[in-house]
Design a protein that fits this description.
This protein has about 350 residues and is α/β, with parallel strands linked by helices. A seven-stranded parallel β-sheet has the order 3-2-1-4-5-7-11, sandwiched between helices. The chain is globular, with a radius of gyration of 20 Å. The chain has 13 helices and 13 strands. Helix 3 (about 60-70) runs parallel beside helix 5 (about 90-115), helix 5 runs parallel beside helix 7 and helix 8 packs parallel to helix 10 (about 270-280). Bound molecules: 2-amino-3-ketobutyric acid (AKB). 2-amino-3-ketobutyric acid (AKB) binds near residues 82, 125, 126, 191 and 204.
Length: about 350
C-alpha cells in the first residue's frame, strides 16, 4: 500500500508553527500534516493536509502516523519553554526530552521503511548557554556554539541534551551492531528570542520584548519583568522560519556543525521600550523586575556568533532591529489589533 508523502510538523500550533505553516503553504509543493496537543487555529487548518490533535508522548499515535504516511522531513517544534519548564520541570523533561526521543525514533523507523534519511529540523535555543554572572556575560560578547554550554534551566538542559541526542541518532546510532544504519539527518538551529507580529508567546523568558509590543498595541499597561539594561539576542519570526527552511535544504556536505547559532539584533530591554513608545506614544511601559526570571536571562548570552550558519548555509537575516520594527512588527501588529 502506498503511503502519502508528507512533511510532519509537531507543536504546530505554537509561534514558530504558525509562521512555518503559512510559509510552506505559499510553496504549496508538499503536503503538511501537523501534530499538536491543542487543535490547530482555524486560520491554519485550511493550509495543511491533515491536522492531528494528540501528544508526542503517545507512541501508539506515532505508530499510526508511521503506518499511514511517508515522512522525509520533520520539523519537531513541540516543547515547553523556559519559564513554564521551571514550574513543572518533570513534565518539561517528559515533553522536551522523551518527546524528542520518540520523534527521533519515529524518524529512524520512517527512514528504514522508505530507505532514505529523514531530515530532522530541531529548534534549540540560547537557553542551552549558561553564563555564570553578568560581568562574564558582558565580557563574553558574541558567544560561539561550543562556549559556555552550562545551562541553568530545565529547558536549557533539555535543549542541549537533545542536540546531543540528535547527533547520536545521526552519527553514532547503534554503533555496536554489525551493520548500523542511521536514517536520521539531524539539523539544529539555536534560536535567540523570536518576536512574531501575529502570535503572542507564552511560557518563555524572552517573552518581555514581544509582550511589551503587543501590550502597547492593545493599549494595555505592561510591567517588564527584567531590568532595562538586560540584553539578549532576538530575531523577527520570518527570519526564524527562513532559517529552518534554509538549513533544511542545505546540502548535507556543507554542514560542519550539529547545532548552529543564528542572530539578528540584540537590543536592551530599554531600547525595545523606546522604540515601542515611539510607535505607540502614550503606551504605559514600566519595570517590575522578577528576580528569578532575571537570573535566567542573565545566564543567556548578550549576543551569539553565527559565522557557522552564515558560512555553511549562507544564513543572512532580512530584519535588523530598525527594519524588524518599522517594516514587520509595528505595521503588522497595528493592522492586527485594528482588525
Ligand atoms: C524562552 O524564552 O524560553 C524561549 C527561548 C529563548 O528559547 N523563547
Amino acid at each position: 500500500m502506498l503511503r502519502k508523502s508528507v512533511i510532519l510538523i509537531t507543536g504546530a500550533n505554537g509561534e514558530i508553527g504558525h509562521g512555518l505553516i503559512e510559509r510552506l503553504a505559499r510553496q504549496a509543493d508538499r503536503a503538511v500534516i501537523t501534530l499538536d496537543v491543542t487543535p490547530l487555529d482555524s486560520a491554519l487548518r485550511k493550509q495543511v493536509h491533515r491536522e492531528i490533535t494528540g501528544s508526542i508522548l503517545d507512541t501508539n499515535l506515532l505508530e499510526r502516523i508511521l503506518g499511514e504516511y511517508e515522512v522525509d522531513l520533520v520539523f519537531h517544534l513541540a516543547a515547553l519553554l523556559s519559564t513554564r519548564s521551571e514550574i513543572t520541570p518533570k513534565t518539561a523533561h517528559e515533553v522536551n526530552v522523551e518527546g524528542t526521543l520518540n520523534l527521533l525514533e519515529f524518524a529512524q523507523r520512517q527512514g528504514e521503511s522508505h530507505g532514505r534519511a529523514v531530515t530532522f529540523l530541531y529548534p534549540s535555543s540560547i537557553a542551552a548557554y549558561g553564563l555564570p554572572d553578568v560581568a562574564t556575560k558582558e565580557k563574553a560578547g558574541k558567544v560561539k556554539e561550543d562556549e559556555w554550554t552550562h545551562p541553568i534551566t530545565m529547558y536549557g538542559c533539555n535543549k542541549l541534551y537533545c542536540e546531543h541526542l540528535g547527533d547520536y541518532y545521526m552519527n553514532h546510532y547503534k554503533q555496536l551492531s554489525a551493520a548500523p544504519v542511521s536514517r536520521v539527518d539531524f539539523r539544529c538551529v539555536r534560536f535567540p528570542g523570536l518576536i512574531s507580529a501575529v502570535t503572542v508567546p507564552s511560557g518563555g523568558t524572552s517573552d518581555y520584548a514581544p509582550e511589551m509590543i503587543h501590550a502597547a498595541a492593545r493599549r494595555q499597561p505592561y510591567a517588564c519583568f527584567v531590568r532595562p539594561d538586560t540584553q539578549i539576542p532576538f530575531m523577527a519570526m520570518p527570519d526564524g522560519v527562513e532559517a529552518l527552511l534554509q538549513l533544511a535544504s542545505a546540502p548535507r556536505e556543507r554542514l560542519t556543525k550539529t547545532a548552529y547559532n543564528v542572530g539578528a539584533f540584540n537590543p536592551s530591554a530599554e531600547e525595545v521600550r523606546e522604540v515601542v513608545l515611539k510607535a505607540f506614544p502614550g503606551a504605559q511601559i514600566t519595570y517590575k523586575v522578577d528576580a528569578k526570571r532575571q537570573a535566567i536571562v542573565d545566564s543567556w548570552p548578550a549576543d551569539v556568533d553565527d559565522c557557522g550558519a552564515r558560512l555553511d548555509w549562507r544564513f543572512a537575516p532580512q530584519y535588523d532591529f530598525e527594519r524588524a520594527f518599522s517594516e514587520y512588527l509595528i505595521p503588522t501588529i497595528r493592522e492586527r489589533y485594528r482588525a
